[in-house]
Amino acid sequence: IGTVGEIYIGGIGVSPGYINRPDLNQAKFPKNPFTGKGTLYATGDFGRWLPNGEVEYLGRMDNQVKIRGFRIELDEIDYYIAQFPSIQANVTVVRKDDNDDKIIVSYIVPQANVNQTKSTDIDQRHYHRNTCLISDLRGLLKKQLPSYSIPSVFVPLPELPLSTNGKVDKAALPYYKDALKSMISQQYTSVSRDNTSVSAATDPLSEYSPTQNTLNNIWQQTLGLDSMIPLHTNFFELGGHSILATRLGIQVRKRFGIDIPVSLVFQHPTVYSMAAAVDQFAQATSNIVSKPSAIDNTVTRPVSSEHPPVQSSPDPSTEYSNDFATLIDQLPPPLSTIQFNNSDTPFVFPVRIRSGEAPIFFLTGATGFLGAFILAHLLMHFPTATVICLVRAQSPEHAFDRIKSSCINSLLWQTQWDITTSETSTYPDCKIGYGSQRVRVVVGDLAQPRLGISLAEWQSLARGVDAIIHNGALVYWMYPYSKFRSSNVLGTLATIELATSDHVKPLHFVSSISVFNSSHYIQLTRPEDIVLAQAKIGTGVLESDDLEGSRYDLPSGYDQSKWVADKLILEARARGYPCTIIRPGFVVGSSKTGVINSDDFQWRLVKGCIQLGKAPVLDNAINMCPVDYIAEFVVQVVAQPQALDQGTFHIESPSRFSYNDMFDQLRLYGFSIVSIPYSLWCVYIKEATDKSTDNALYPVLQFTQDDMPKNTRLPILDTSHTQVICHTGGIDCPPISSLIGLYLAYMVKVGFITPPTLDS
Prior knowledge:
Shape: globular
Number of helices: 26
Mean pLDDT: 82
Number of domains: 5
CATH architecture of the largest domain: 3-Layer(aba) Sandwich
CATH class of the largest domain: Alpha Beta
């Protein structure tokens, strides 16, 4: 139930097959495996069983593809491209690059007034117009689609080839590599005809430095191009994607002999900027080797668990902390200095939440794995509640379908939540959105000003909502901070504004323990701390910590964006506003049904190791907690007034569970896996993914190659506040070791992994 698959039709009305086409019959008219008689017809349509016995049709299989583990709707991409005013026609397809990797390619026909060129004398303008158009189009799609759905390549054409019946002839579309080579050639041609460059960002004929020349060769090999790469051309506009970016990073490491992050291209996506970064890394490495006794450039100050040394000259990785310093001025003034609705009491715990009678909640991130569970647990804990969900979608109907689909996939949807109506809620306080009385949606986007919703919707939410649960975020480990800023930082700032508009209402922010991924916090954990934590003796990073230990060296853009968002919430709380921060560890499957999110790294690691037959020796702990426990904990924080006094909560597994423990569990359940040193395992994984894209770790290869023993270390966290909430609410987190069998059973049942052999 809820699992997406192909729809087959059976019965006496099904044809026995095509005449004289045994090859086609084997695929389209297989034998009926249920009765052993007759045939089934493979429709080529996606669908799934619903809990009420109905089959939901989800579209044609040839318009839904899976690339690097992500399911992608080509029709959805085409829909948003068609909305762009300068596009006359378009079609999106999947092609394979020289490494046999699937990529998304969109062929576009610009409007005549945008791309009308009759004379070769204006090649420069012709190229410039296409470049600007593609750049603008890519920017639009970033606001509407997840990153993995954005086409790797856009190919401008004068017209799309059509078949005899008037449909786009996809087979006649030109090979995208030829288009890329033509674009690069146009760059050189246009500039050679006119010494004036197309723009300040385009200088393809500049003299290459030795580093730039070496990088150019690596880029050519990685992208399969045989012409010089212009210095300022973006890697991802040349057909690059996350896997190629990883391969590029590995080759740069080898060629230059420096320990740069594999994700370098995400921060520096042009030859010009990457060369500068490589030179900077090389210089820093040289200084460390030649000056081992150099004086540390820090301001002297006592070091404690609260405050690390302050660097007087922070490097570019401190962009995020500098940004926080500017954003803090956008927070509302202290609560004690303002008055709401002529009330002498600026905040009173919402009566409808305290009584449980028809409260209204606003929830972000409800289409995600954890978000769907939070939605379901809110509805079950508060039987008369209305939950309004912010959803990025084409329409209110599409938004509601996305919510419903997410819940169905996680075996959560209940029929009483399914009444769809355009009428507003029966509760007069919140006449907003589309959906049923229990579940309503507003179409919006965290990355947009005012969450992408209308002023009228904003004002209605501000008046009618009792509490806000902000769970939404952009999650992609390889992006720089700038890519996360709109969704994860400014989106959080907008929820603070909403929580303080009209009347003060509680804001509960679901963050992440990744804010502690800095060397300062990791070094605080000593071996004896692990023993104390196992004995449940108070230890670890306090829930009241001010996060200053991560001000300077958080490694990823995602971690940095969460740090800024957390600091904004902490500052709002310091100004008197009722805010909480909930920091879960790794969210894993349901402890009741075993439902997992198969795109999570942990399960990709499990599947990848099973496929390889080898696992790395890795004793670092994994802070895994069941999704239903985390969701219920969030609901308890919402329901308990004392949570607003405590403020911050760390969610940790009750017992230590390491990567080695997980691999031992796989062997316990019959999977044939040998543990080998991490460095050797990296070689095997690299070889496996070079030969085939079938290994589950292929989409996250960059993480497996980027020093997992270092990057998976976690500090011990204090959970005193969390334990109080759990005790009051009567909830407990089961030990993960007791759930691995359930998760494996679910993965086998849905075909994510193959079962162990019978003789194991």
